[in-house]
Design goal:
heterodimer; A: 351 residues; alpha+beta; 4-stranded mixed sheet; 13 helices; 12 strands; 15% strand; globular; B: 68 residues; two-stranded parallel ribbon; 12% strand
């Protein structure tokens, strides 16, 4: 995108912090939490981290078709409580979400509880303090929480993804508040996500998934790669996900201990994907009659007692990363199914 | 998108999502996009109900695709 969009609207406001916050709350310019006032001085600090024109349109965001300019994104990043050095991650993240392959139109408006998960790889993760270890999908780290929140505020305030109007999620999900993580590259036995895609290790990237919140996979008992993988496959091959309905690109976040057990037995990432393609399936015979009919008519499944329905069309459609601290837990992230694809952008080095 | 390429189009949906459909059409500059709407829901209904809702929508679909 190189078009220039409108300048961000500015206004004078005199009042205490609680009055400023009330002003934003009353106008629906927040996700419900209090905001940090986006003063011109604060926004300027963010704009200093990039060479990009403040009026450059980074993406046009549905359903409002709002122009997400560099400046408007900075305003929302300030409001979210970000630090200026996080800004290049957010810019790259919004670009990834605006990629047509991500299908933000549907992701914003759908009844499904899909959230934009940003997976950050490369050296910037460590330099800005993104958590990839204990509780990486949870609370406690400013970079994770506020980058995720900044993305949500942009999707609401620029894109118009407002609950009940532009965002029709039936129940929604806590993941829709903030969902940003770094891969634990240091403890991964395999190449990290961006290196797998052909990029150098010292390049930083953000990869966006249209995903549900993490679904835990606990296995304290298996001491072989095969054992852990069978548990993982059992968890992923579940009824009710959009992936079982129609494929797509689900993500598996292996805890470092599970990843080590699997890798020790000779599984490469590719072999993990091949195993899961074959085994993360749900028995056709256990689906309801209408669901079976859908699978036969739309996915050409064979109506037979031994048919197993896959969650993806090919092994390459399964994403695998390593996230977390010690312990025997992993997670998989069902996605919005075939309604979205993961998209990736290189994060510019901070100026 | 098809409408913008000159293909007469009818978007089918339920009244529950009418406001969203009109909002999206307006924001894409196709405010007059014809909608063929039926009572909510479309998912999880039996075949006879599908046919009943198709009957309800058929007039507006025909009207939309035979415009101009």
């Amino acid at each position: 995108m190189s078009a220039r969009g409108p300048a961000a609207v500015t206004f004078d406001f005199k009042g205490a912090l609680d009055e400023i916050d009330a002003h934003y709350q009353e106008r629906g310019w927040t996700d419900g939490l209090p905001i940090v006032p986006p003063t011109e001085a604060a926004v300027r600090e963010f704009l200093k981290t990039t060479d990009r024109d403040p009026r450059e349109v980074v993406g046009v965001l549905p359903p409002r078709q709002g122009e997400a300019t560099v400046e408007r994104i900075a305003v929302n990043a300030v409001m979210a409580g970000c630090r200026p050095e996080y800004f290049p991650v957010i810019l790259a993240g919004i670009e990834a979400l605006a990629d047509p392959l991500f299908n933000l139109d549907s992701v914003q408006a759908t009844t499904h509880p899909v959230a934009p998960l940003l997976v950050v790889n490369g050296p910037i993760a460590r330099s800005i303090g993104l958590n990839a270890g204990y509780n990486a999908f949870g609370q406690g780290f400013r970079a994770n929480v506020t980058i995720g929140r900044a993305v949500r505020l942009v999707l609401m305030n620029v894109g118009g993804g407002l609950p009940g109007t532009g965002d029709r999620a039936t129940q929604g999900s806590p993941a829709k508040i903030a969902y940003c993580v770094a891969e634990n590259e240091a403890e991964s036995p395999w190449e990290p996500l961006h290196v797998e895609a052909g990029l150098a290790r010292d390049v930083s990237t953000v990869t966006a998934y249209g995903a549900e919140g993490p679904h835990n996979i606990q296995d304290h008992y298996s001491n072989t790669g095969l054992g852990v993988l069978l548990t993982v496959a059992g968890a992923m091959g579940q009824a009710g996900s959009n992936n079982l309905l129609g494929g797509g690109c689900p993500l598996l976040s292996l805890g470092p201990e599970h990843a080590a057990t699997i890798a020790k037995d000779g599984y490469t990432k590719q072999k993990v994907k091949e195993f899961l393609f074959e085994h993360a399936r749900f028995p056709f015979a256990r689906l309801g009659a209408e669901y079976q009919r859908y699978q036969v008519e739309r996915r050409r499944m064979v109506d037979a007692p031994d048919t197993m329905v896959p969650i993806v069309r090919s092994p390459a459609d399964i994403g695998v990363i390593v996230v977390g601290g010690a312990g025997k837990h992993s997670a998989w992230h069902p996605t919005f199914g075939d309604g979205t694809r993961p998209t990736r952008r290189i994060i510019a080095r901070p100026r | 998108m098809l409408e913008q390429r000159g293909v007469p189009t009818a978007v089918m949906g339920t009244f529950e999502f009418e406001a969203l459909a009109r909002l999206e059409a307006k924001n894409r500059g196709i405010e007059t996009l014809p909608l063929a709407l039926v009572p909510h829901p479309l998912g999880g209904i039996k075949d006879d109900e599908v046919l009943r809702k198709a009957d309800l929508a058929i007039e507006s679909v025909l009207k939309a695709v035979t415009r101009g």
